[in-house]
Specification:
It contains 11 helices and 10 strands. Helix 7 packs across helix 9. The protein is of the alpha/beta class. It has a 5-stranded mixed β-sheet with strand order 3-2-1-4-5. A 5-stranded mixed β-sheet has the order 8-7-6-9-10, with helices on both faces. The mean pLDDT is 93. The protein folds into 2 domains: 110 residues, Nucleotidyltransferase, domain 5, CATH 3.30.420.40; 159 residues, Nucleotidyltransferase, domain 5 (2-Layer Sandwich). This is fructokinase. InterPro entries: ATPase_NBD, Carb_Metab_Reg_Kinase/Isom, ROK, ROK_cs. Its cofactor is Mg(2+). One of its GO terms (molecular function) is metal ion binding.
């Protein structure tokens, strides 16, 4: 299951081939998770699952030793703080299960079947950014998602603002952190209408490109990522915005990183190879991770 801030996608797959998927609106935790759990039970009764992968928006508690493992931590999404994501879904069926952030799942999928399959050198040191209802980042190091005290929360990094940009941001925690500046709801507040109704050549995109480039530059400087994929509803489908971001990343870094220049930036900052399939396939990748961790299946 891929649980997003606007919609949830429940799917079943064989390998990385999706056999069936159902979209559920993300409303309240009870309504959304109950609908998903009921669907999982019905499918599991028809053909038992080998494993379950849950790729969710965050922030999440991912420490298995914590009493609130698998629960949502304080989030701007109304009503979702404390929601027991893992318990509601993994508790519905009996099989190995794994939970991680949606961006970590998408990074794993891209490493397995996307940019990592096309260019294996990019799979280690891969960053997957999603810019949509919120802003999140998943990082792979030695083919594993990066976890520590929790998982990276790049959406709430505060970066240098563009000169002359008066937009105050909308994050209830930090105001003008990156999520407060460039997420879908932030763009609607900034423009007075949804971003998909703004012409690609509108000069107001310049401040948005500046802010995204600030985030990308911060990631390149702090994590030495080999590749930054920009997905999500805001990130995908806007080639002109991605081009602006690339140009500004090179300008903002000012030659400090010798491997980042006009010739290389197209390989380093790019759209996901899997496109919109990266999120759902991220849940599949997590299910395969759970299956690998559980060991060989018993023989029939």
């Amino acid at each position: 299951m891929e649980l997003g801030g606007t919609k949830a996608i429940v799917l079943r797959a064989e390998g990385n081939a999706i056999a069936e998927q159902v979209t559920i609106p993300t409303t309240s935790p009870t309504e959304t998770l109950d609908a998903a759990a009921n669907l999982l039970r019905r499918w599991h009764a028809q053909a038992p699952f080998d494993a379950l992968g849950i790729a969710s928006f965050g922030p999440l508690r991912l420490d298995h030793a914590a009493a609130d493992f698998g629960r949502m931590l304080p989030t701007p999404k109304p009503g979702w703080s404390g929601a027991d994501i893992f318990g509601a879904l993994a508790g519905a069926i009996d099989c190995p299960a794994a939970i991680d952030t949606d961006v970590d799942g998408a990074a794993l999928a891209e490493a397995r079947w996307g940019v990592g399959a096309d260019d294996p050198a990019l799979a280690d040191g891969l960053c997957y950014l999603t810019i949509g209802t919120g802003v999140g980042g998943g990082f792979l190091s030695r083919d594993r998602p990066l976890h520590g005290a929790m998982h990276p929360e790049v959406g709430h990094i505060v970066t240098r603002r563009a000169p002359g940009d008066p937009f105050p941001g909308i994050c209830p925690f930090h105001g003008d952190c990156i999520e407060g500046l460039v997420s879908g709801p932030a763009l609607a507040a900034r423009f007075g209408m949804p971003g998909d109704r703004i012409a690609p050549d509108d000069p107001r995109w310049d401040h948005v490109a500046h802010d995204i480039a600030q985030l990308v530059g911060t990631i390149l400087l702090t994590t030495s990522a080999r590749c930054v994929l920009i997905g999500g509803g805001v990130g995908m489908g806007r080639a002109a915005l991605l081009d602006r971001v690339r140009t500004k990343v090179v300008a903002q870094l000012a030659g400090y990183l010798p491997h980042v220049d006009e010739a290389s930036i197209g390989r380093i900052v790019r759209a996901p190879a899997l496109g919109e399939r990266a999120g759902p396939l991220g849940a599949v990748a997590l299910a395969l991770e759970a299956l690998d961790a559980a060991g060989p299946l018993p023989s029939a």
